[in-house]
Design brief:
By secondary structure, the chain is mainly beta. The chain has one helix at about 40-50, and strands spanning about 15-20, 25-35, 65-70, 75-85. The chain has one domain (about 15-90): P-loop containing nucleotide triphosphate hydrolases (Rossmann fold), CATH 3.40.50. It is built from one helix and four strands, in the order ββαββ. A four-stranded mixed sheet has the order 1-3-4-2, with helices on one face. Bound molecules: guanosine-5'-diphosphate and magnesium ion. The site of guanosine-5'-diphosphate has 12 residues, from helix 1.
Length: about 90
């Protein structure tokens, strides 16, 4: 993938950020980001998944969903981030 910043390479690990719609993976993780409105949930997730930081504030209404796929050495990891404003609305 070219439009996403690639992580800094290390000698031990080789990283490659893959497109969001990449379907293959070896390991899958689901992460839930919980917090009151305006604490920085969307910014944190955008920075982690797209390396983007925006100072504009658009309140998350209900639920936001982000996908992040990365290849580390020979393993493809799929991260699914769910952002909730209100922890009381989570159904696992
Ligand atoms: N200075 C600074 N501002 C931040 C940081 N994280 C979030 N913000 C600002 O805080 C506001 C709310 O962030 P946002 O991620 O939209 O909050 P959310 O409602 O929890 O998703 C935005 O105006 C962001 O620009 C941070 O680490 N530093
Ligand atoms: Mg938000």
């Amino acid at each position: 993938m070219t439009e996403v910043d690639q992580p800094i390479q290390s000698k031990e690990y080789k990283y490659e950020v893959l497109p969001d719609d990449y379907t293959q993976y070896d390991l899958s993780y689901k992460l839930i980001v919980i917090g009151d409105s305006g604490v920085g949930k969307s910014c944190l997730t955008n920075k982690a998944t797209k390396n983007i930081f925006s100072e504009s504030y658009n309140a998350t209404v209900g639920f936001e969903f982000f996908i992040f796929n990365i290849k580390i050495n020979d393993k493809i990891l799929k991260y699914k981030y769910g952002i909730h404003v209100n922890k009381n609305c989570i159904k696992v």
